[in-house]
Amino acid sequence: MSVLTTRPPDRTAGPPAPRKGRARRRREQQWPAYVFLSPWMIGAVALTLVPMAVSLYLSFTDYNLFDPPHWVGLRNYTEMLTEDPRYWRSVGTTLLYVVVAVPLKLGLALGVAMLLRNLGRGRAFYRSAFYAPSLLGASMSIALVWRALFNDGGTVARVLDAVGIHTGGWVGNPDYAVFAVVLLTVWQFGAPMVIFLAGLQQISPDLYEAAALDGAGRWRQFLSVTVPMLSPVVFFNLVLETIQSFQVFTPAFAISGGDGGPADSTLFYTLYLYERGFTASHMGYAAAMAWMLLLAIGAVTLILFRTSRSWVFYADEEDR
User: Fold this and answer.
1) Domains observed in the chain
2) Residues 262-271 pLDDT 10s
3) List of long-range contacts for 252-260, beta carbons under 8 Å, 24+ apart
4) How many beta carbons lie within 10 A of that of residue 290, not counting itself?
5) Are 76 and 285 in contact (CB under 8 A)?
6) What's the pLDDT tens digit per position in 183-193?
7) pLDDT for the residue 1
């Protein structure tokens, strides 16, 4: 005969804590995190969100920095898109710069990174040496030196003349001036090179050994092993460099003398924005240009992310 026993109820356990009490305890546990985050939150609101809101408001006004803003609605945007040929010239110059400079810069950075990966002694020295232009190239002083190199009678013109290529000074030639800015940007390949080098070091040597056993040569190993395994790093560098290229300003300002010349051949978007806002005192128009640039960068970035699904390979994803 079995005896059925039941556990007596626990008289000491109280009723479950009310929901409001649990939420209050959760807030008490989280407040130290908000205290430590408060400097960043204050900076984000005061230095980013509020200026963006003011800029958006000014883009719908006629504002000259001295008189109060006057609301004009969409007039700045319609004038920009339909009545300003220099605006579209700046768009074309910037697009040409992005299409040419970004692939050249990433290609050179990847090539040098692959050379450094196979380098034994002196890798740290060469890595630092190749990275140095990325620290110096964004300065106004280097841009002025670059202007002197590519000016009429400069070093580049004399070297090309010595080998029978007579182009003259690039800075004063509307056909070549933009390419002087492109070369200055490509020269600053150190940052993506370091990222590529880190990605190359994460590729397992076993993959190259297996490809070699299958009869793959160096070029085939590069296409079948290096490129797929490095594609997330390529995508990361591509997005960063594309965003930065749309915002190029200092080299264009220094090489063109601040006016986008000759014949508006170096009239980059940001340079024209600066001219309209601070030289012509049309700050409302400049604010509208800034928001159009933000929308364009957002659209290009979205396209890159959408298309990345077809060519970026992630090793931890099975259905790729």
Assistant:
1) 22-75 (no CATH), 81-310 (1.10.3720.10)
2) 888 899 999 9
3) 252/181, 253/140, 253/143, 254/140, 254/143, 254/144, 254/146, 254/147, 255/143, 255/146, 255/147, 255/150, 255/171, 255/177, 255/180, 255/181, 255/184, 256/171, 256/177, 260/90
4) 19
5) yes
6) 999 999 999 99
7) 43
